[in-house]
Specification:
With about 170 residues, this protein is an alpha/beta fold. Helix content is about 40%, strand content about 15%. It has 6 helices and 7 strands; from the N terminus they run ααβααβββαβββα.
Length: about 170
C-alpha cells in the first residue's frame, strides 16, 4: 500500500489538497459514474430529524422520510451516486428483514433510485443479536445473547439468506 502525508491549515485545505492529488494520479481501473458522484447517507438526515421528533435517529428510518430526503436532493440539483439507507430500516438487526411498517415498499423505493442511476446501500449492524435465536450467538454467563456468532454455521445460513434477499431483484 502507498502511504501519503499531506499538510494544511485546516480540514478544508486538507480535503482540497487530497482531492487535487487524487485527480492528478492516473488510474488504470475502470471508473463508474456513480462512484464519482456524491454519496448521500441518511444518518445525518435522521439525526437532524431526531431533534424535531424527539426520538432517537434509528427510530426515524422511514421510507417517507427517505423519499423526502431524495426529493429535496433532486430539487437542489444534487445527484448522488449512492443512497445509504441507514439505521434502522430492519425489523430485527440480526435478521436484516425489512420493517414494513417503516418501509411499506422498499423495493419500489430502490427501483426509483436505480432508475435515477443511483445505487442503494443498506446499512446493517452485523453484530447485533436482535431477532436471532440465542443459541446462534455469543452469550454472557447468564446465557443472554451479546452478539451474533459469525462462525456459527446456522447463523451463517441466516445471514447468507438475508444477503441474498437484500441484493435480489
Amino acid at each position: 500500500p502507498r502511504v501519503q502525508m499531506i499538510f494544511g491549515r485546516d480540514e478544508y485545505e486538507l480535503l482540497g489538497e487530497f482531492s487535487r492529488l487524487e485527480r492528478s494520479v492516473p488510474t488504470a481501473k475502470k471508473q463508474f459514474d456513480w462512484w464519482t458522484r456524491p454519496i448521500f447517507c441518511g444518518w445525518g438526515a435522521q439525526s437532524a430529524l431526531s431533534r424535531n421528533y424527539d426520538k432517537p435517529a434509528p427510530a426515524l428510518a422511514f421510507q417517507k422520510f427517505y423519499e423526502d430526503f431524495t426529493d429535496s436532493l433532486d430539487e437542489k440539483g444534487i445527484n448522488p451516486g449512492i443512497i445509504v439507507i441507514d439505521d434502522k430500516w430492519q425489523k430485527a438487526y440480526g435478521l436484516n428483514n425489512v420493517d414494513t411498517d417503516k418501509w411499506p415498499d422498499m423495493k419500489a423505493f430502490i427501483r426509483r433510485m436505480h432508475d435515477k442511476g443511483r445505487k442503494v446501500l443498506l446499512w446493517l449492524k452485523a453484530w447485533d443479536p436482535e431477532g436471532v435465536d440465542p443459541a446462534l450467538c455469543v452469550r454472557d454467563f447468564r446465557g443472554n445473547a451479546q452478539a451474533i456468532d459469525p462462525q456459527h454455521p446456522d447463523y451463517r445460513a441466516v445471514f447468507e439468506a438475508a444477503c441474498r434477499n437484500m441484493i435480489s431483484p
